[in-house]
From TrEMBL:
It comes from Roseivivax marinus. This is DUF6314 domain-containing protein. InterPro entries: DUF6314. It comes from the Bacteria. Residues 21-150 form the DUF6314 domain. It holds the Pfam family DUF6314.
Amino acid sequence: MTNRPLSPADILTLPEGLSDFEGGWRLSRKIHDRHVGQFGHAEGRLEFSPDGDGLRYDESVTMHLPGQPPLSGTRAYLWRAMDGVIDVRFDTGAPFHQIMLGEPEPEATHHCAPDLYRVSYDFADWPVWTVTWEVSGPRKDYRMETLFVREKLRGG
């Protein structure tokens, strides 16, 4: 082990709160559906916008699956700040999971009987980040990896 001074490359930058996510993001998603034995991918956009007590997550994607025409889809969540965590809720306000702040790779689970959703966030390359879902149950068995890259700011 060396006693050299830390360089900027040695210092891990992590999101500190909701405001770090606000704005537009490009996303790229890979999906491996083990239940039906196929791979798919999606490209799209995510916008975090102010909404009451936090941010609204609005995602729109175009998904490509083998042998099918492209499919357009959207999803929305509510992100709320709590003590040291981001409380992620469905757009109805129902609880979904929490993201621990200050950790480079926080994990969480959500049980939606009979399926189990396990999520891993990776903020180690912030502001580039990934989310990986492993979903298992009698009707579902898939892995979904999404890469998020901040859109260039106007004038930046």
